[in-house]
Amino acid sequence: MQFTRHQNFSELHPSTWNALVTESITDSPFLRHEYLGSWWQTRGGGEWPQSELVLISAIENDQLIGIAPLFLAEYDGQQALLLVGSIEISDYLDLIVRPADLTRFLAELLNFLASNGPLSWRGLDWYNLPDSSPTLAALQAESESHGWSYHQEIYRPTPYIPMPGDFDAYLASIDKKQRHEVRRKMRRADEFEYPVRFYIADDPAVIDSEIEAFFKLMVEDPHKARFLTESMRTQMTASLRAAFDNGYLWLGFLEVDGVKAAASVNFDYKNKLWGYNSGVGREYMELSPGWVLLGHVLKWVNDNQRTEFDFMRGDEDYKYRFGAINRFVMRAKVIKIS
Contact at 8 Å (CB) between 109 and 96? Predict the structure, then answer.
C-alpha cells in the first residue's frame, strides 16, 4: 500500500471517499466526507482549537483501500492521535476500510505512523468506536505486536429500538403504561382546540430557515443553549445543510396553530433513522409536544419500513421507556512505548 498524509480534506474526492464508507466496517453518516470535512473546519464546533490534521489514505493498484481520519492534540496528559469527529458531537467513528482489508491496513498504518507520523505523538485515543467494530480486536493485536500498551473500555450506551414495520405492533411491544401514555398524548394533540400538524421539512427553498427554527427551539433548553456556542452553531448548520444536500437529513416539526412547538433532527441513512438532536418550545407544554413528536417520528419509522430508530449516545430514561435496548460505543487507548 502507498500511504499519503493529506493537508486538507479537498485532496480526497468526496464521491470516492463516500463510496468507501458504504463498503466500510462502519457505515455511519459521521464518517462521510461532507460531515468530517465540516467538522474539521470548526474543529468540532470549537472543541479542539489547538489541533493538527493527520489525514492519511492508502492506495493499492490505483484503488483507495483505507482512510485514517486523525488529528493530533494534547489530551489526557499526552500528545494523542484522535479520530476526526471526536468526541462530543459525532456518535459513531472508526477507520474507513473494507472488512477484508482492515488487518493489513491497520498494521501498515501503525508502521507508517511510527516512522512518518508527527514527531510528538505518544499514543492513540479513539472514541466512539461501535462495540461491534472489528477495529477493536485488530487494534489490540497490532498494538501488542509493537510492544505498545492497549486499553479498552465502554464509553457510552447508544440505545436503539428495533422496529417491526408496524406502529401498532411497536406499541404492543413496550410497557403497557407507556403505550397508554403515548396513545393518550397523541390523541389529545389530535383533539386539541387548535390545529396540530406534524410535518417533515423537505423544501430546498426554505430549508435554511427551517434549520434556524430548529435552533430557536433547541436553545429554549438552558443546557442546550450553553452548548450551542457560535462555533457549535456554525458546525451544526454546516453539517445539517450538508446532510440535506446529500439526501439524508430528516428534520421534523410539530406545529400548533401555526407555531412550531417541537423539532426533531435525525439522519435518514442506511435504512434506519439516527436520532441526532431535538428542541421543544415552552408555549404548549400542556400538550407534551416532545412526546407527541417522538410518537410521530416512531410512527414514520415504522410506516416507512426503516429497521430501527437509533437514539445514539446517552442513557436518558425516556429512551428506555420508549422500548430502547442498549449497545455501546467504546474508547480504545494505545500508549506508544519507545
Answer: no
What 3-state DSSP class applies to 243?
Answer: helix
CATH number of 2-156+329-335: 3.40.50.300, 3.40.50.620, 3.40.630.30, 1.10.150.80? 3.40.630.30
Residue-wise pLDDT for 188-233, tens only, equals 999 999 999 999 999 999 999 999 999 999 999 999 999 999 999 9
pTM: 0.95
DSSP bridge partners of 67: 57, 96
**Considering only CA atoms, which of 268, 261, 302 is closest in space to residue 283?**
261
Q: Domain spans of the chain?
A: 2-156+329-335, 160-310
> Strand, helix or coil at 298?
helix
Burial class (CB in 10 A: 0-12, 13-18, 19+), 27: middle
Helix axes 230-245, 33-46, angle to 10 degrees: 170
